Amino acid sequence: MKNDQLRFPRTQAVVDLSVIRSNFMKITEKTKQANPEACVIAVVKTNAYGHGAVQVSQAIADIPGLWGFAVATVEEGGELREAGISRPILVLGHVFGKDLKEAVKLGLRIPLYRTDTLLSLRDAADELGIPAFVHLAVDTGMTRIGVRPDGSGLEFASRASRTEGIVIEGVFTHFARADEQDKQAAAAQRDSFLGFVRRMREESGITVPVCGMANSAAILTMPETITDVARAGIILYGLNPSDEVPASLIGLKPALSWYASVVRVEEVPAGTPVSYGGTFVTGKRTRIATVSIGYGDGYPRALSGRGTVLIRGKRAPVLGRICMDQMMVDVTGIPEAEEDDAVVLIGRDGNEEITAEELGDLSGRFNYELVCMIGARVPRVYVRSGVD
Ligand SMILES: *Cc1c(COP(=O)(O)O)cnc(C)c1O
Fold first, then answer.
1. Ligand 1 lined by 92 (C-beta under 6 Å)
2. pTM (2 decimals)?
3. Is 241:234 a contact under the CB 8 Å cutoff?
4. Burial (CB count <10 Å: 0-12, 13-18, 19+), residue 115
5. Known active-site residue 237
């Protein structure tokens, strides 16, 4: 493929919104099988795992079975509201005191587990004259955020339920190990959570309409954890929760491809050092292609001397150190390679494919991190490949 097919030849990430839609529909099908009443929360934090939060959210906003969206910060929620997204938005991370009023104004659902948050929310709701919607966070095994699933947690929930201006819309917990084959730890979290929710109802008389615990891995492998809502993150993008729980279990496909260009091809003799530090020296005559991508774009520098890219459907290994904006690859085995060839960093070219999982493993990042780190400098191009 030549780079005249690329709108941004230096580098671009192409996100196929038809694939996102089709993934989302397969996910809702799976959750409905487990629980016909269940809805899905699309997790679009960190700019939708690098895919573009506004575009991804807009692409699925009309699909039945969507409860709403989840983000990590108030700013991310504000970005969606600004783009006209009106569905519920749950914030998954701690909301700091100075952001609470804005969060209530935006109608964001706030994770609640601290007394100071509760009191500030009461004041914000009073000042604004609108209720503050909260989701009680319960720590059943992540040891991250949330109340304890015991008497102290119940007491906090009761206090919140009696606080003016506060609506406890949801209660949630998060799995630490649902992506493993061995489900013992995840099952213990499930039981702890369900026990807590039952005690809230039976002992404290608190009924919460939106109870959720399943993440991507649990959606795929623990149907009994699909309650009122399930939170789908990585699988929405067609990526694997882990090697043990692959997205292919329900036929999900990766939505993102990443491209760059060959800007020079040069044949050099044996003994030629390549890139900073001369860490790689050619052992024979070598054809070297310079590629317009670097770690400044989020291509991991740890792939120096380890990664491969696709040129004309064939694998070309990275030579020497990856620079901030450029890198060199070996095209000795691809005699047809020439300047202005497109380079595939992630995606398919002919019969070859490079996945985010492969690059994640090779670089010591993992697939979630790899796509999140695709730089702001890389323009995203949106396509719709199919009928959706
Ligand atoms: C990030 C996150 C998710 C999504 O996790 P995936 O493994 O991508 O599905 C769900 N819930 C919480 C609380 C999270 O922080």
1. yes
2. 0.97
3. yes
4. exposed
5. no
